[in-house]
Write the structure tokens for this entry.
Amino acid sequence: MSRRSAIRSPSAKLMIGLLMAAAFYPVAASPSRGVEFFEKKIRPVLVERCYKCHSARSEKVKGDLRLDSREGMLKGGESGKPGVVPGDANKSLLIESIRYKNEDLQMPPPKEGKLSDEQIADFVSWVKMGAPYPGTEESEIRNPKSEIELWWSFQSIKNPKVPSVKNRAWVKSPVDNFILAKLEGNGLIPAPPTDKRTLIRRATFDLIGLPPTPWEVEAFLSDNSPDAFAKVVDRLLASPHYGERWGRHWLDVVRYTDSFDARGIGGEADVPEAYRYRDWVVNAFNRDLPYDEFVREQIAGDILATNEAARFDPGKMIATGVMAIGEWGTGDADKEKMLTDIVDDQIDVTGRAFLGLTLACARCHDHKFDPIPTEDYYSLAGIYFSSHILPRPGAKTAGSPVLRIPLASTAELDLRKEKQTRAAALEREINAATGVALLNKPTRGAQNKPTLTALNLSDGIDLPSAVANSGDTPLEFITIRLPARSIAVHPSPDRAAALAWQSPLNGAVEVSGRVADADDKCGNGVEWVLYHSQKALASGKIDNGGQQDIPRAEAEVHVGDLIQVAIFPKDKDHGCDTTVVELGIHERDGEGRTWRVPDDVVNDFAAKSNTGLWYFFAFQGDPPVTLTPNELSAEEKASLVRWKEELAALRAELSRPVPVAHGLQEGGVPESAHAGIHDVQVHIRGRYDRLGKLVPRGLPRVLAGENQPPITEGSGRLELAKWIASPSNPLTARVLVNRLWQHHFGEGIVRTPNNFGKLGEPPTHPELLDYLAHRFIQSGWSIKAMHRLIMLSEVYQQSSAANAETLRADADNRLFGRMNRHRLEAEPLRDSLLAVADNLDYTMSGSAIRELNNHRRTIYLMTIRSDRSNYRMLFDAADPVSIVEKRIDSTVAPQALFLLNHPFVQAQVKALAQRLTKESPTDDRGKIEWLYQLLYGRSPTTQELEVGLAAVASRSSDASAIADAWDQYCQVLLCANEFIYVD
């Protein structure tokens, strides 16, 4: 069917109408993102570079311009023009002045230095997002500490009395009393209960993120027992897909990503094992890990995992991965700044995710709203500076490696080393018995160290084993051309030349490289062989002037093993084939280290600058070969058989690499200024190069008190974790139950779930929040118990259709007098399309998958920080760059176009139509009924049935035309609001 004829068809017209109607739903905003941007990017610069002349604390306000409040910026100065025009950077005088485009208007003054390009770009972005500037003038926001300490969220959690209500018949749970009491106090009534079909669809999407099947709907409708819905809730909570749904909610909060950079910043500088943390979160929700333990393991799991009193638990190691996947510049050349940014990110996620406090706002100055002084920030910073997620800072010109922690106990790792040693010994015994010729032991260092410029070729014989060009330009000598910054070895007619790497580790490594004949005039080329422990991993030949890649190979090494590349002349009459060699060794496990020739030795070819691991040497003979086996006695032959069997078993066992994960370890970053355990000095205005008072490691004093016991052992993360997870902490339980409420109702009792401080909104129902928090702690911190408490309430089971008076008086539904309708998020929308098409692959866990058209659940699709996919952006998935407290719920035209045209959707439409043919009745009425039950959990109305029959009616008996009609009709139903929205 042509596109033009398709548009004329009844189903296409119906589809367009449905999709156009969807565009009228409102788009939600995200003001908290703008505030976060201001506090992290803009205010610190204003404090450091602008407030001296343009704030209430200035001796004289220059130009009559105040920059310490939004009102001052909008008003502008003596020019009479606004300093900032929200949304329009090009009309904002502030932007003009910091760009230095006008010689008469330059801020800061040129003598004090222009802002960096990055800072200017931040100000432009801030103005474009509307110039959010929380609070009042700086002179007015320094509230007395005693006043701030009375803030509601800093008070102990109470067990409030359940209020009495007039309409007691409406109440199913104490939760209902709190909601109904406030509605009745405002003269309002709640919405009626929703129907059972809507309720099971709501609950199923809420708990597992998938649509209920027709069979599940029918079972619920047929169950008239009082606990029918409770059984539905219990079944869904027991589903393994519950963890996938609620784990994704948590991943939003902790800025989860599978990769830092889509461009591939380098294996050791990225986080390919981040998926282990994602799987740990999913599993933690599924097994209802008590939330206090959930908190402790993410902050101090590595310490808990290695506690000698308990069995080693790799999951606890994995849990600290939350601290390793943050937003920081792994490729930052300023490594000291990078380390401070890492710690700032860790403090930020600790504060906002667990405590609902913006602790990171105190990095450059005392918190402008909450009683968090800068000294408290650096007390926490000392805790995280005394921990590390990097094995070392890395070179300024490269990305910093991310720590890979073996998921094995010390005893298990020691046993593995013993097996590696035993395997090496067996190889030597077998080789000796079977007569395998060995390479000579190399001599340490580069003994013949003159470079090519110093060679004396007068007699044509005294050539060094290895030569180097450490310059930045190619070097030519006679017929030899040596590339810039390269290493070459030189075989001769009677000897081979070689380089070798001696392993400093036990574990798996990956080997790759290249050989190239640097002399295309003399000689006839070379043979090369890559060895490990007398075993050839790869070999090849190159002609005169040719080159060849050494194919990537893997080897299991132990300390002292040699990986060698030997170069032999192909023609024994020639010995002038100087051969450039590149060799890279990458550690698969552990710290992910990399060694490279020429990089490691090219600057100074002498042994003293060698890393102690590279050898260059020559030896007599041809390429090693296996000789004729020695004559062995029967007893020796039996021993040989046993050795080979034992070696085969050991190799099979050792071939399975020790799994690794990203996470935290005790002690500051090795090879940095923060190695070891230590307190830190205050960084004045957030600058690591301007140090102030040394402050002891500790906890926020406003909550933990002034007389805290000193942290004398370890980083202090264990103390921090225990304090956050304590029942006496006034924030932890409140923050979590508020998140649960938010995901069930669309809004939290506190509408700023990551900010329970002065800048956040107060709770609409403070007594209910405390009641839930108290019950949460009393339940043993069981999240599933809280789901049951909330979902079995009448308030959860309300209809989304409120009466007119309640809707008029409470348009924002702050009193929860009805259920909020919402669009499916990116993950359940895609998963639902796959599920109804019978294409969903329910396999759980494992590495992330890049392709959108893969059939796994969306939680397993790769999230890349620098390159969010079009699908994720289009349907408002969490931005992994930031800590997301609440997703935007937009409805825009491109979403409709995606559902109409994208190949992924088209594939699901085709699959649904094929499923219809296989599983539904044969008549058109029966097919339409089947589709409505599958997609919406109900039967079609008479009008819907008539429209459907008209849409699939074909004027042709051609099978293809009939199939096209059903394809289009399936797409109509998939694109309808009833499929995309949840009531």
